């Protein structure tokens, strides 16, 4: 595993939990000291539940997890141009048993790291990948211990490249990328200050600021009094990060907060580029690109970190299944087939958000239509050999509030009775699982077949399986196959389906 950010650590943790031997290396000295990707979607929290860290991540959201306020405004108390999420909006619309999280990357990464190490993963910081080669049987990586200067070589079955947007692995393999490229340049300021009643109580606050003096973003973090402020600078006008020393950042912060006497304690000033890139391939042989190495999305929408987690989990469960001999190597083809089109949706939607929130001057016919956040998070349809799609509907997104239950989509969250207790269907899936209302018929299928009752009739409605049919759900909660029929040979039917979707020859 190259990289110990959100993508690499999620994959490392899940592989280690599955008993796979994994070595993680990261060039940096430790995890991200900067809150960067703040906020976990409910879908990310479902993944963290499967990785055993959801409760701890949620603890990092205490005090801010009751909602979020998102506005486009001149300043924190100034004219509001557009409210994206109101104070009173219900953010949790009942699509998941998991709450969303509001923890920063500087909190989440150490949680993932500790859990991964707890499951036996070795993660070495200050260790840089300097060369990668592969042949038919494995991958050879040359590594450099940056402190001692010692070089060493590692041989592995597979390599996951979660090495960030400048991915050395992607460049070494000659994988190109397409897209709008650099959109804007930012100076990011992490600071502590008492914001008093300028922020909504008990809610996350995110302001996109279009001020006559600057364009920027203000975001609070899960650490008390800690906030992040990013302001655009313009290299084409000769500006550079050096033009933003602490005193100028303080002045801009006073304008942004409408507080002329604000005395922010500035902890860090960094610079970064907002960009949109999609790699031409997410895989080369035994090497898989994950997170920012595979795609870079504008952070407008908060999906860069969330999709890094999603990529890491996706390749990890598939690699674990192959390495444990439970699936054929063909299952790995589904990683790029499913995640690359999804990344395109994420980038397009985030770019549309960017134009609306920060760059209205770019508005025009080539800006993609905005996409509803819920569709992006819950309504994407996977298309690959690992799902058996039988309809010819080309749509890649659907409204998850009215799920069709068709293969390729996420298995909807429905509260059912399981062993007499109210349980989410999402929580019933930990491995390959058959959801049916007639367990007696399907009990011999070679997967989990939970006993359940559907007192509200929601399961029948949302899964579309009738009284005797069934849905086969993958370990990642995606519907692999569905039937409304009562089979003559249920176990053989499911075995045959499993062989197809797990690419067992
Ligand atoms: C200012 C800012 C704000 C953001 N806000 C949000 C947000 O609100 N929500 C959101 O979802 N996303 C946000 N993002 C994006 C998010 O931070 C990234 O998408 C996420 O960090 C990507 O994770 P990753 O694991 O792919 O890569 P990274 O976190 O970049 O990690 C890369 C890893 O690779 C290692 N590495 C690199 N090269 C090598 C090498 N040669 N050898 C060994 N190791 C190497 C590094 O040491 C590091 O461990 C933001 C980003 C920025 C910059």
Automatic annotation (TrEMBL):
Keywords: FAD, Flavoprotein
Keyword Chaperone listed: no
GO molecular function: FAD binding; oxidoreductase activity, acting on paired donors, with incorporation or reduction of molecular oxygen, NAD(P)H as one donor, and incorporation of one atom of oxygen
Lineage: superkingdom: Bacteria
Domain FAD-binding: 2-349
Cofactor(s) this protein requires: FAD
Classification via InterPro entries: FAD-bd (IPR002938), FAD/NAD-bd_sf (IPR036188), RIFMO-like (IPR050641)
Record flagged with keyword Flavoprotein: yes
Pfam families in the cross-refs: FAD_binding_3, Rng_hyd_C
Protein name: 2-polyprenyl-6-methoxyphenol hydroxylase-like FAD-dependent oxidoreductase
Organism expressing this protein natively: Saccharothrix australiensis
């Amino acid at each position: 595993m190259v990289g110990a950010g959100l993508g690499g650590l999620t994959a490392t943790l899940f592989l280690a939990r599955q008993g796979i031997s994994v070595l993680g290396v990261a060039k940096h000295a430790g995890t991200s000291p900067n809150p960067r990707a703040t906020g976990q979607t409910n879908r990310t929290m479902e993944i963290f539940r499967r990785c055993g860290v959801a409760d701890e991540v949620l603890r990092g959201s205490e005090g801010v997890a009751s909602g979020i306020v998102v506005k486009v405004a001149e300043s924190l108390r100034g004219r509001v141009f557009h409210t994206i999420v109101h104070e009173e909006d219900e953010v949790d619309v009942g699509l998941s048993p998991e709450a969303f999280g509001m923890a920063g990357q500087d909190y989440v990464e150490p949680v993932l790291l500790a859990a991964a190490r707890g499951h036996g993963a070795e993660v070495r910081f200050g260790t840089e990948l300097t060369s990668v080669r592969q042949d038919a049987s494995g991958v050879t990586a040359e590594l450099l211990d940056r402190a001692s200067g010692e070089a060493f070589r590692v041989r592995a079955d597979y390599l996951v490249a979660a090495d960030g947007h400048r991915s050395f692995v992607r460049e070494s393999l000659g994988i190109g990328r397409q897209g709008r490229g650099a959109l804007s340049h930012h100076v990011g300021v992490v600071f502590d200050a008492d914001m008093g009643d300028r922020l909504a109580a008990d809610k996350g606050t995110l302001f996109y600021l279009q001020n006559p003096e600057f364009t920027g973003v203000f975001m609070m973090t899960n650490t008390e009094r800690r906030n992040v402020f990013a302001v655009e600078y313009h290299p084409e006008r000769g500006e550079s990060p050096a033009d933003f020393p602490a005193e100028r950042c303080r002045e801009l912060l006073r304008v942004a907060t409408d507080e002329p006497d604000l005395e922010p304690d500035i902890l860090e000033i960094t610079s970064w580029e907002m960009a949109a890139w999609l790699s031409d391939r997410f895989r080369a042989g035994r090497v898989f690109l994950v997170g920012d190495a595979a795609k870079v999305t504008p952070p407008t929408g908060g999906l860069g970190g969330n999709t890094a987690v999603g990529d890491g989990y996706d390749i990890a469960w598939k690699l674990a299944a192959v390495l444990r001999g439970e699936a054929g190597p063909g299952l790995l083809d589904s990683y790029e087939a499913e995640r690359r089109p999804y990344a395109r949706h994420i980038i397009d939607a985030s770019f549309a958000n960017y134009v609306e929130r920060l760059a209205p001057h770019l508005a025009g016919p080539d800006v993609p239509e905005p996409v509803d956040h819920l569709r992006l998070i819950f309504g994407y349809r996977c298309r690959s050999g690992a799902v058996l799609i039988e309809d010819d509907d080309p749509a890649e997104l659907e409204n998850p509030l009215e799920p069709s239950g068709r293969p390729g989509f996420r298995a909807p969250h429905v509260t059912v009775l399981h062993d007499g207790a109210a349980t989410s269907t999402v929580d019933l899936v930990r491995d390959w699982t058959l959801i049916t209302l007639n367990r007696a018929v399907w009990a011999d299928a070679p997967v989990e077949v939970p006993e359940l009752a559907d007192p509200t009739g929601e399961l029948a409605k949302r899964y579309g399986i009738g009284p005797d049919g069934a849905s086969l759900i993958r370990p990642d909660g995606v519907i692999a196959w569905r039937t409304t029929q009562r089979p003559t040979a249920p176990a053989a039917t499911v075995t045959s389906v499993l062989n197809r979707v797990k690419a067992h020859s």
